[in-house]
Amino acid sequence: MHLIDPLPLNRRAFLRRAGQLAAVGAATPLGLNLAAMGEAAAFTATDYKALVCVFLYGGNDHANTVVAYDEPSWQRYRNIRQAGPGPAGLALERAALTATRLQPSAALAGGLEYALHPAMPGLAGLFNDGQAAVLLNVGPLIQPTTRTGYFSPDRTAHPLPPQLMSHNDQQSVWQSQRAEGSANGWGGQIGDLALANNGQSLFTCISASGNAVFLSGQQAIQYQVSRDGPVAIGALANGPHGIFGNPNQAAVAQRLRAMLSEPRGHVLEHEYNRIAGRSIGAQAMLRAALDGAPALATPFPAGNSLAAELRVVARMIAARSALGAKRQVFLVSLGGFDLHDRLVEEQPGLLRKVSEAMTAFHQATVELGVADRVTAFTASDFGRALASNGNGTDHGWGGHHLIVGGAVRGKAFYGRPPPLSIGETDAPEDQWHIGQGRLIPSTSVDQYAATLGRWFGVGEGELGGLLPNLRHFTLANGHPPDLGFMA
Q1: How do beta strands 327-334 and 49-56 pair?
Q2: In whole angstroms, what is the distance from residue 266 CA to residue 111 CA?
Q3: What pTM did the predictor assign?
Q4: CA gyration radius for the chain?
Q5: Of 236, 348, 247, 228, whose CA–CA distance to 284 is shortest?
């Protein structure tokens, strides 16, 4: 049993992508990857919906993000994490967690309680107000797995995701179900199904965070924006000299436009001109749409790159009517989470940025009247070991994540609470980690994506093609399980 390879690109897709690559030279931003030309959609959208993936690069330490709070659990957590600088080692003091204690509508079994990191009061407030939920112990899986299966030599009976605990590979597996080098991500493939719903299909899959496989589909190819909006070809950029340092920029721009309008006999030259011309048109259209949209009154925190990326996403959502958009998938990100060292010193600032940025973004969707039509969710390379390495934590597998939005069934936990254990025994609790408290996910990324995809409008018939391992998590009646966190 193996991961299913992506479908081969057809000839038209190949030429389309080849044309794009030709158009993207040293002076041309990757934001001009604009050849998304979906011929059909799997559903017809009459309203607006957007998914926003917030990727935390480096592998976030989940145990100090969603923290055990009830007294017995916190004592176990503290005892395991006591190694490290300071009297509590890596563990957060229970008194410091009181203000960010999560108060679900229904109590968890066994009296379990959690709190968010003290640096995350905004997201804790959204959870307690019913606008956010926590998904416990989620990660890449091919099929349900336990410790016994992980250590089995029979990979046919017990298949595992490729290259576990490798940053680049696990980023790719989270985003595309495949190791580094994958051509298509599940965000882009969801975009494929929605292309024909949008008046301008080019603005279906949008990254404010550079190139990532998550937004690459068979037809949908990510349109990249900067934190200020669209990125122009260098020769057409604003300023007295453009990026070429040429005082005759106006003449250069005029000549470039003329060259693009000239007829070409060679098919590749023709594609180059066609795509570059469409790129210029799309840049101008997006700039006009953003300039014409109402200014956001919601303040976004300064000095926060994630907040800046989410702000431009909010501005594009505000301009959705001018762009003819009914369905959009976005990617934003924040790096720096690979904290083998200085976890106590560095993680609070990172989590503060996440909380402040996602809280401001949700408030902006409320201002725009689309809070119930925009869902933001976190993802990361992997979780980390529960055990301390002395000054930080090492790579793991499963971890906890947050979903925010007006359509989220918030004030609730989803998934299975993981054990607070680092033992390597036959005890039931130790079947859910692989040593040092590295969690084996009890919920798969495919289930996470399927629940988001259903809310977005993806039908049951398409989910299996988008998420090839979902079939291993079906219920007895054959229907893929919905995790239940979306209304």
Answers
A1: parallel
A2: 70
A3: 0.87
A4: 23
A5: 236
- β 114-116/66-68 pair status: antiparallel
What pLDDT score does 22 carry?
A: 40
- C-alpha closest to that of 53 among 187, 182, 178: 187
Judge whether 52 and 58 are in contact, CB under 8 Å: no
Distance of alpha carbon 78 from alpha carbon 346, whole angstroms: 19
The C-alpha atoms of residue 5 and residue 468 are separated, in whole angstroms, by 9
- d(CA 322, CA 416) in angstroms, rounded, equals 43
Q: For tokens 């990254």, what's the residue? A: 207
Q: Return the sign of the alpha-carbon dihedral for residues 463, 464, 468, 471.
A: positive
How many whole angstroms separate alpha carbon 156 and alpha carbon 162?
13
Instruction: Write out pLDDT tens, residues 464-477.
Output: 889 989 999 988 77
Mean pLDDT of 407-426: 92
Residue 34 has pLDDT above 90, yes or no: no
Q: How far is CA 226 from the centre of its chain?
A: 17
**Helix or strand or coil: residue 67?**
strand
Give how far the C-alpha of residue 350 lies from the chain's centroid of Cα atoms, to the nearest Å: 16
Partners of 139 in the β-ladder: 444
Straight-line distance from the first to the last Cα atom of the chain, in angstroms, rounded to the nearest whole number: 34
CA-angle at 66, arms to 65 and 69, nearest 5°: 125
Residue 222 — very low, low, confident or very high, per pLDDT cuts 50/70/90?
very high
The DSSP symbol for 101 reads B
Q: Check: CB of residue 320 under 8 Å from CB of residue 48.
A: yes
Structure tokens at 120: 């995350």
191 phi and psi angles, rounded to 5 deg: -60, -35
Q: What's residue 311's pLDDT?
A: 98
Q: What is the pLDDT of residues 52-84, one digit of tens each?
A: 999 999 999 999 999 999 999 999 999 999 866
Among 3-12, 97-106, 394-403, 454-463, the least confident range? 3-12
Residue 84 has which token pair? 């490290």
